[in-house]
Predict the 3D structure of the following.
Amino acid sequence: AKADGRGVWRYFEPAMNRRLQERRLLELDMRRALAEGQFELFYQPIMDVETRRVKTFEALLRWRHPERGLLAPDLFIPVAEEIGLIVELGEWVLRRACADATRWPPGVGLAVNFSPVQFQSRHLVAQIAGALCDTGLSPGRLEIEITENVLIKDKEATLAILQSLKALGVRIAMDDFGTGYSSLSYLQAFPFDKVKIDRSFTCELDQSRKSNAIIKAVASMCDGLDMTVVAEGVETEGQFEALQREGCSEAQGFLFSRPVAADALPALLCALNGA
Ligand code: C2E
Ligand code: CA
Ligand code: CA
Ligand code: CA
């Protein structure tokens, strides 16, 4: 007579324990990785559509895991957010990226991704001001990319943070535009300088008249709002030509380059901009 509630629980327990255990191992692993310098930044160029030269490099985090190889951020950032490690990891990213950017030509900007969890830290503005001050990077070269998830939580507090960042001279970009629920109302309420149209719109550009119309409308709206429009995920010349036609000012994607390690940037700049 084991067919009672406990029997049922016993059945599920091992699987649940295993998942918790894996999570706890990943946690330990990640803390050690940060201490031992296993994280790396790759950079992907964002191109000026008109001149087809590099305008900005976006920093994209990678984890060079000793056993599992090079890991993409989707595999570990959600856990880092869950355990709060993203605040420390995000500060490492920012400082590393600002330091790297001081070695680029001064006309080239730096874009850094921020997690909603970082916006819950009271020290965010001081953290960013400190990184700029310590590395000597001019604030006008730094762009902070956030998704609308940042804006959902506490609108007043977030607006205050964004205004402080603007006062520092840093620019703000809305990432993954068009994938959330209230992107338009957020454009009105928050001081964005730039809108990054999500890859899901760009990748249809060749085949679907709808995507062309959406991109054209977003570009013309942003023009009226004095915001720059970037299309993400540009993979073909056809897509690039359509973007040009529809009035997008910047473009990012594998067509120009995949994300590359920091020490490959001088050669990449040469190849893309010409010597
Ligand atoms: P994201 O900010 O939207 O970054 C763009 C992602 O699209 C990158 O993936 C990039 O490699 C990929 N991508 C760029 N061009 C193309 C293209 O032409 N085709 C396709 N198929 N993909 C393209 P990645 O590097 O794996 O980053 C994934 C996400 O992880 C990022 O999305 C961002 O949300 C997050 N992330 C990356 N680095 C950081 C970081 O330092 N901090 C935080 N909080 N999040 C980060
Ligand atoms: Ca981004
Ligand atoms: Ca994006
Ligand atoms: Ca994304």
Summary: DSSP finds eleven helices and ten strands in the chain. The mean pLDDT is 92. Strands lie at 39-48, 54-65, 69-71, 109-113, 142-146, 171-177, 194-197, 228-231, 250-252, 260-261. The first helix runs from residue 5 to 36.
